[in-house]
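Good morning N.,

You mentioned wanting to compare the apo and holo forms, so I went ahead and generated the holo version with nickel (II) ion. This is what I fed in:
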Amino acid sequence: MIFPIVAYGDKILRKIGVEISVDYPELNQLIENMRETMENAHGVGLAAPQVGKSINLFMVDTSAFEDKTYTKLKQIFINSEIKEEWGEEWEFEEGCLSIPLIRENVKRHSNLTIRFQDENFKWHEKDFDGMPARVIQHEYDHVKGKLFVDYLSPLKKRLLKNKLINISKGGADVDYKMRLPK
Ligand code: NI
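and this is what came out, ligand included:
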């Protein structure tokens, strides 16, 4: 089942996702539906708040990137915590399925260490760099109530204000379904 993607302006995108345990109801179904939703929208990552679930769960699948030179990563992250970020900051033009048709440069550290559980609730602690690290940082922000536009300068934000309002009102012309803020 494909979920509608929660659009910018919905309060759920600002909430911190709660940790979940192994008895979370129908988790496999949720993951399957999220994967279908992400692929349908050609996303490289999707976080649970973007489908209306305020939980600490996100997925990354960089195979949808057009540039195939990036290191591939396909992983579910549950109850994740970034322990450390380091390395030189670099800029990349980010986008977000909840904020369609807006792309802006965001600076992030090149490396990170993240502790997380996979879909079988097995714990991992891993280092990432390059594009996988970038997507993890973006999706991790989602489960912490943060969006990439938060990193922009006040001037940039002001320039984007009308576009953001338009997205909240359903004005963005996208080929996937969106859930608009009430
Ligand atoms: Ni996003």
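Residues 96-98, 138, 142 surround nickel (II) ion (CB under 6 Å).

Happy to go through it together on a call whenever suits you.

Best,
F.
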